[in-house]
UniProtKB/TrEMBL annotation:
Cofactor: Zn(2+)
Coiled coil: none
UniProt-listed Pfam families: M20_dimer, Peptidase_M20
Domain Peptidase M20 dimerisation: 200-300
Taxonomy, superkingdom: Bacteria
Protein name listed in UniProt: Peptidase M20 dimerisation domain-containing protein
Hydrolase listed as a keyword: yes
Classification via InterPro entries: ArgE/DapE_CS (IPR001261), Bact_exopeptidase_dim_dom (IPR036264), Pept_M20_glutamate_carboxypep (IPR017150), Peptidase_M20 (IPR002933), Peptidase_M20_dimer (IPR011650), Peptidase_M20A (IPR050072)
CDD domains membership: M20_CPDG2
Species in which this protein is naturally found: Streptomyces globisporus
Length: 404
């Protein structure tokens, strides 16, 4: 095995390169925020993709665009995948690093015109300024810095930009899964939390539809011939809500209950929509089994329950590897004067999908931002140079495999 001989640049040596790019970062950010790119605005998302593709090509990336087709009846923009081979082959210890950001926002067409990019002191505002245009741009800027610093001690860097993260990535999910497979590490470019924390874990979410079938009967003449689906549903609500607190890392929520049509009919059908969240795959499995068990024993004779899983977003678990990644980030942060902490969150993102195929992910590697999905959304521009330098240093550190 050939050990890499070149000296890896220190994080603080990358910082001046990031500082020198702040003006360009801000003008690029203004340009990106000016493009309406809501998840349901494929034309706008594709403009962001065009721009991102041009930047990646200029940095020596081979760029592939995948039109993901229709997802849940809606057309979305393209998925963008950039790949750049480094000079340290995988067999010599080089690592494949995936950087992931999303191009869509939660905002409708017209928002960029009514609420344009603005700078107030150190805070930038505008639709998507933090979520995730600031993160996307931080990734591109970090790659630019690595190119200038001549850092190529990695097997491959893969840059993934998705068009539909804000609606749960229905269209891009299979592309993300196949792009992520084979990566040694993934760094997700959602912005850092308001307090500067990185994200080491995200809960998984699964949605279930429980359909209860009973038997209708005249409620006055022969109610004994009926089987009340609403009553079975009511018992299920109590049983499923009682799962909360049973396991430390699992929550269960019966969010929708619907049953029956008229007061003079024994209720023949009911449905429940149930969500489970858990920090671990084991927790998801336990909760699912408990739902199926409750459904198998309906409270009212003559009723039956069918359980259907509508949606599954796997948890992004914190693992030994992600803790090691976090330790590297923390020590690089120290070199930059940053005190970095790791946090877990219940919100899901593309990082969950990447973690779901077994790739360790650290998230929150964009600049510091907050109030996402609201008109107050902000990005702390003063955090940009340090966070970009941190990201570049982390890619360099993970890429050559020498810390493992
Ligand atoms: Zn986001």
């Amino acid at each position: 095995m050939t050990a890499p001989t070149r000296q890896r640049p220190r994080a603080q040596d990358l910082l001046p390169l990031a500082r020198a790019r702040l003006d360009r970062f801000l003008s690029d950010l203004a340009g990106l925020v000016a493009i309406d790119s809501g998840s349901y605005s494929p034309a706008g998302v594709n403009l962001v993709a065009d721009w991102t593709a041009a930047r990646l090509s200029a940095l020596g990336f081979a760029v592939e665009r995948v039109a993901p087709g229709k997802a849940s009846g809606e057309r979305t923009g393209d998925v963008l995948i950039g790949r750049r081979t480094g000079r340290l082959a995988a067999r010599d210890g080089g690592r494949r690093i995936l950087l992931a950001a999303h191009m869509d926002t939660v905002f409708a067409d017209g928002t960029a015109a009514t609420r344009p990019f603005s700078l107030q002191g150190r805070l930038a505002h505008g639709p998507g300024v933090s979520d995730d245009k600031g993160g996307l741009l931080a990734g591109l800027t970090a790659l630019d810095i690595l190119a200038e610093a001549d850092v190529e001690e990695y097997a491959e860097i893969v840059f993934l930009a998705t068009p539909d993260e804000e609606i749960g990535s229905p269209a891009s999910r299979p592309v993300t899964e196949r792009t992520a497979r084979g990566a040694h590490f993934a760094l997700a470019l959602e912005c850092a939390r308001e307090n500067g924390d990185l994200v080491i874990a995200r809960k998984g979410v699964a949605d279930f539809l429980l359909t209860v079938t009973g038997r209708a009967a005249h409620s006055g003449i022969e109610p004994e011939r009926g089987a009340n689906a609403a009553l079975t549903a009511a018992h299920l609500v109590v049983a499923l809500q009682a799962l909360n607190g049973l396991w430390e890392d699992v929550t269960v929520n019966v969010g929708v209950v619907r049953a029956g049509t008229r007061t003079n009919i024994v209720c023949p059908e009911a449905e429940l929509r149930v969500e489970i969240r858990s920090a671990t795959t084991a927790g998801m499995t336990r909760a699912r089994a408990a739902i199926e068990e409750a459904a198998a024993r309906p409270a009212v004779a003559g009723t039956s329950v069918v359980v259907e899983q509508l949606d599954l977003c796997p948890p992004m678990e914190d693992t030994e590897v992600t803790h090691r990644m976090m330790a590297r980030a923390r020590s690089l942060g120290e070199e930059l004067g940053l005190v970095l902490k790791a946090t877990a969150t219940g919100g899901v993102g593309d990082a969950n999908i990447i973690a779901g195929v077994g790739v360790p992910v650290l998230d929150g590697l964009g600049p510091v931002g907050g109030s996402d999905h609201t008109p107050e959304e902000w990005l702390d521009t003063a955090s940009v140079p340090e966070r970009v330098a941190l990201l570049a240093a982390l890619v360099a550190t993970l890429g050559d495999g020498r810390h493992e």
